[in-house]
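Hi V.,

You were right to ask for the full record rather than a summary. Here it is.
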Amino acid sequence: MPMKVAITGATGFVGRALVQRLSTRGDRLVLFTRDQTRAARCFPPEAFPEVSIVGYQPTAAGDWQAAIAGCDAVINLAGAGIADGRWTEARKQEILSSRQGGTRRIVEAIAAANPRPSVLINSSAIGFYGTSETATFTEASSAGKGFLAEVCQSWEAEAQAVTVHGTRLAILRTGIVLGDGGALGKMLPAFRAFAGGPLGSGQQWFSWIHLADLVALIERAIDDDQFSGTYNATAPNPVRMQELCQLLGNLLQRPSWLPVPAFALDLLLGEAAQVVLEGQRVLPDRTQQSGFEFRYSLLRSALEAII
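Predicted structure:
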């Protein structure tokens, strides 16, 4: 049965794929966006007749919140880009407030809605666990330390407040999403130009998920009334950065021996370089225990499908 679903962050890499999927199955979609013109270009009415676009400021209360009423589900994907530039103090505040404040306003809207949505699906990230070259993290692992871990904890704490109002909550701690664009889209040009190679030491863990699997997991969270709590949105076979680069080189028939030294990334990105120079080995134990089956559980098959 078609549902009415509200989505923030719909014009992003994941959001666009999600809108395509939910539109295909006949859902009515309410898209909250800061840039209505861009959203209309992404989802023209002749191709997406069941989509309505609502302008909003994520961290500000407003009339937009009333559009939550009558929705069956809310999917909160919004947040300032983590690796889009140097982490100045202003940029770090934007990264935090876009998630913390944005989620708070969504929860306020759900609390005030009549009728209320039955589920909030809220993004988080595997940065919650901190970084390590030796540890393995599951949904049962405690929070780590560092800026990204603190952001994720604040983000999730705001979302948890929705359960007081009787709305089911599913939090997806997402790894690096692989698809036609996103992080992979930034790496491929270097490999095609014979300049590809690992970032830093190459020994950092790379916990990933194929875009199609992430969309399917969100779809599962919408439809399954028993799907609640925290889930790792990562494939069950993480790899080290060096293996990722070797696979990319093999598939593209390009060398993968030219590393990007850590000091160069530090100079370019400052503190934000930790996003690519450090990693964590994250397993989706609870996700798999729920019965979810990954279409792409191995990195080679995921990259072959994309490339």
